[in-house]
């Protein structure tokens, strides 16, 4: 699906999550900021994890060599 | 940066605002005011009487009385548990009892209980004695009867080992030697009694020696177990009869009996008298049993009535003791009519406290109101975070390392997400993640029930961390999907694999391998890798680079937090001479490494990154050759190296010198010392926090401190980055363990046809997964994620030398003593 496309998907999911958290538990500006921080951190961490594994497989230097018995 | 300034302050990022307050309470409303404050639980009072010993304090008598009462309550608790009565506390009957009334009631109950216990003991002792007497009568009577049956008139004297050859039957030694008829005729007498079975042998030997063999000892086990008065346990006893002659022998034997704790009971010789005595004793025994039963029932009834109230009373006494301990912390003022106290409270709580104090004034019908006002403080306030049940566990994790300084950035804000995330990187398997999710959901859904009951220490920890486990489980499922491991089995959830055989016959799949013919697998690790021979090199490469990237990111986050801290406290010195060189040093070396990793992945170059990094230091001007990843790399590397080298003295030298300059500017002209400044009030409390601290500026100390800080950072940059490789190590271990269990347990067992072997294999696989992977690996990954947070992340910005806000609260009292 492409690197850029999936990154945009992650970004959109993050935005949707923060909006829904703001709608469901709106508890004052300080707490809203706290929730936003949590969502942003989670989105960034998940994106990084995916991006690392994706980029590593983009142009690999080795390929799977099947073992005997497969 | 304007954006950051416009934002409202974030919840949980910094401690709540705390203010130092002073309360002046008139004596008549003191007790009530303090109890109400305890109910509210938002004020931490300082101990103004620290130098006084506990016996010099004002309310020492009341504290002693509370101590007495709690001792009595503990005594009741012991008695109740010994009697085996299950206390069913009735919370409904909340009768408001006065403390004095409670005291009187408690002493009444105690006296009653003690009396009942004493009576019980006496009765029990008498019962035991009678029981022993009965046993002695039964068994000893047997000996004497046998003796009389075999009384041969001819031989009247006691003969030692003489075997009669007259009788054909093999006579026992008893019947041979106990030939005399009546003891009184030949001067032969006997003593009968009962002794513990364990001492019986030594007893016999002692008697033999003492009487020089002129005695005959006969014994038989008592048959029933008797309660030993000393130890209170049931022991085996032996009934014995000692036949002897002479007065001296009798005295000796009696003394020996006493020494060994054997009880002697007189047994009449005639059979009829024995039977009569036995009947009498049995009668008395049954009477005593009835009396004992009645006594026990009476006592149990009394205990039950106490048991229902005991919990309430204990809480009440604890509260009172807390109130008096707090009152002891206050000082009497000059007029001796008011108590003065100082304490910390959160600024948002001040109206609530004022209201509570007003109530106390009204309810105690006092004429004078309670004065409550702010004070300036020079001491650092305690740190207070208002946590809910979700953030509480994460805050506890951070506090275990060190409580945040007042108004310092709280790492828990980010740890809520990064801690479970790093755990998941090491745990990544969505099958195991699902199990963890199940466990945590069970704990969360039964929150109310589990929260009210008492749990064992392990369950309590698991219950306290239920939200942490929930997040860990969710992230583990995510990371498991990325690593593509479900109990180590990969799935093709996200589409087809990117690899296929070069030819349709797959002839060289085992030598040259597959080829990549499409875009990479869209989400996670391609499932074709599992089981291949080059799986480990590939995964190791990914995971090591991933660890470095995650590590550099988290460390950068830590340094950025130190920037925000410095900005908040207005310390531009820290920003310019600590934050900037630290950022430059870390990023020019390890940030550059991260950049190289990403470039290598994107371009597919064959450059050796180890070589590049090492020769960046060893030979920066040398030619890169085939390790060149982008144009201008050599020049960039030389620039970064120079920047890193400059950064080290930048973070080491300027700050101490500038601090010294600032200090001399501020205190210029004050070097003659301060002679009792006129600002000091005459009636100021010597303990209060308003005392000013005069600081001397010790340059060498500051310089050494800065040097340690810089060295720690520079060396730590290398070691901390390497420390993040544990993410790779643990995830590899988890994956390998999982693979081994799957292949060598489950698949092996499934290969057989027999159902029993299959079920056994499944059971062993389940046990191994549950205990080794789910419990041990969870704890291990938890611990390592914790270490990464505490040392590598929090070491970049966190001081953690504050103290926690511990208000006087009845709820906390109840929790802490349990």
UniProtKB/TrEMBL annotation, chain A:
Keywords: Hydrogen ion transport, Ion transport, Membrane, Signal, Transmembrane, Transmembrane helix, Transport. Its main location: membrane. The keyword ATP-binding does not apply. It is a multi-pass membrane protein. The chain crosses the membrane at residues 33-56. It is found in: Endomembrane system. Residues 1-17 form the signal peptide. InterPro entries: ATPase_V0-cplx_e1/e2_su. The keyword Ion transport applies. Belongs to the V-ATPase e1/e2 subunit family. This is V-type proton ATPase subunit. It comes from Ensete ventricosum.
TrEMBL record, chain B:
The keyword 4Fe-4S does not apply. Pfam families: V_ATPase_I. The chain crosses the membrane at residues 421-445, 465-483, 546-564, 584-601, 636-653, 755-776. It comes from the Eukaryota. It is a multi-pass membrane protein. GO terms for cellular component: vacuolar proton-transporting V-type ATPase, V0 domain. GO terms for molecular function: ATPase binding; proton-transporting ATPase activity, rotational mechanism. Residues 92-126 form a coiled coil. It is found in: Membrane. Keywords: Coiled coil, Hydrogen ion transport, Ion transport, Membrane, Transmembrane, Transmembrane helix, Transport. Its main location: membrane. InterPro entries: V-ATPase_116kDa_su, V-type_ATPase_116kDa_su_euka. Belongs to the V-ATPase 116 kDa subunit family. Essential component of the vacuolar proton pump (V-ATPase), a multimeric enzyme that catalyzes the translocation of protons across the membranes. Required for assembly and activity of the V-ATPase. This is V-type proton ATPase subunit a. It comes from Ensete ventricosum (Abyssinian banana). The lineage of its organism: Eukaryota, Viridiplantae, Streptophyta, Embryophyta, Tracheophyta.
